[in-house]
Amino acid sequence: MGNTVRTRGDQRHPFTGIGNPSDDGPCPAEAHMRISFAGTKCRSSERRPKEARTPMRVRRRILIANRRAGEAWEAHRRLERGESWRVSDIVDPRQGKLLDAACREADIILIEAGDLIWLLDHRTKQAKASFRSTPPMILIDDNEILNVVARAEAAWGLLIRERLATVSLDKLDLAAQGYLVIPGALVIYMRRDGPRLDVLARLSPEERMVLFHLGMARSNRIISRLSGLTESRVKISARTLTRKMQMRNRTALAVFAVANGLAAPLAPVN
C-alpha cells in the first residue's frame, strides 16, 4: 500500500507567531504508524482523535538586553530551563539598531534599570517605539525606583531587587501579566518618600541651598542676591532639582522642602 501524507494549514499562534507543534510535523509517538523502508508516514485514519492530544504550552519569546555577556548567558540558561520562556536573542542595549531589530522578534525585553534610563535619555523616540511593541521587564534597585516609575508606561513590568543571572521566574511571569511583587519593607520605604530622601542625601551643597530658598518661596532674583549665584545658575539648579526629584515644578519642590524640615514656611520676601 502506498504511503499517505496528510497536511494541515498553517496554524500559528496569534500572539507569538509560533506554530502549534501538536498540529504540524511528525505524528505523535503514541499514534499507530505504518512503517516502510521509504519512510514513516501516518494515515489520517490512524491518527489519535484531536481531543485526545495534549497541546504543548506556547513559550513566549524574551529578549535579554545586557552588556555583561556572562550574566546574560546565566539568565539565558535559567530562562530556558523553565516552561514559559524562550530566549530570542541577547543584545547590547546600547547598540541601538541591533536592539530595535531584536525587539521586533520578541514578545518582551528583560533589561536593567540603568540601561533603560540610558535609552530613554539618549534614544528617546526609538526606545519608546520599541517598548510599545515589546514591553520591558525592568530589573530595578531601590535607588532607581523614582526615576523609572516616573517615566514608566502601563505595560512595563518591574522586578524589584532582582538580579539578571538569578531572576525569579515566578516574579517574571507575574510581571509579564501586569502584577507587581513588592516586599513589605519597601512599601513602608515608599510611603515615607524614601526614594526622594535618598536623592536629597546625594545633592550638592549648591543644590541644597537652592532647595532651601525655594522652600522659603523666594524668586530666582532674590535667591541670586542671597546666595551669590547668577540668576541663570539658579534657574539651572531649580530645573536640575525638579528632574532629580521627579517633581512637576518648583512649587512641588517647595512643598517637599517644607514637609521635610529643609525650610520654614515663611512669607515670600519682596
User: What sort of overall outline do the alpha carbons produce when their principal axes are compared?
Assistant: elongated
**C-alpha end-to-end distance:** 104 Å
Number of domain modules: 3
* CATH topology annotation of the largest domain: Rossmann fold
Give the helices and strands as they follow along the chain: EEEHEHEHHEHEHHHHHHH
Structural class: alpha/beta
Contiguous low-pLDDT stretches (5 residues minimum) are 1-46
- Rounded mean pLDDT is 80
Q: Which strand order does the major sheet show?
A: 4-3-5-6-7
Q: Looking at this structure, what is the CATH superfamily of the largest domain?
A: Response regulator
Note the main sheet.
5 strands, parallel
What is the class of the largest domain in the CATH system?
Answer: Alpha Beta
Which features characterize this protein?
270 residues, alpha/beta, Rossmann fold, Arc Repressor Mutant, subunit A, five-stranded parallel beta sheet, 12 helices, 42% helix
Describe the structure.
By secondary structure, this protein is α/β, with parallel strands linked by helices. The chain has three domains: 1-54, no CATH class; 60-184, Response regulator (Rossmann fold), CATH 3.40.50.2300; 194-259, Orthogonal Bundle (Arc Repressor Mutant, subunit A). Helix content is 42%, strand content 12%. The protein has helices at 69-81, 96-103, 113-122, 124-133, 145-149, 169-176, 184-191, 194-201, 205-215, 220-227, 231-245, 250-259; strands spanning 34-36, 39-41, 60-65, 85-91, 108-112, 136-140, 157-160. Strands 4-3-5-6-7 form a five-stranded parallel β-sheet, sandwiched between helices. Helix 1 links the parallel strand 3 and strand 4 (85-91). Helix 3 (113-122) crosses helix 4 (124-133), helix 9 packs across helix 12 (250-259) and helix 10 (220-227) crosses helix 11.
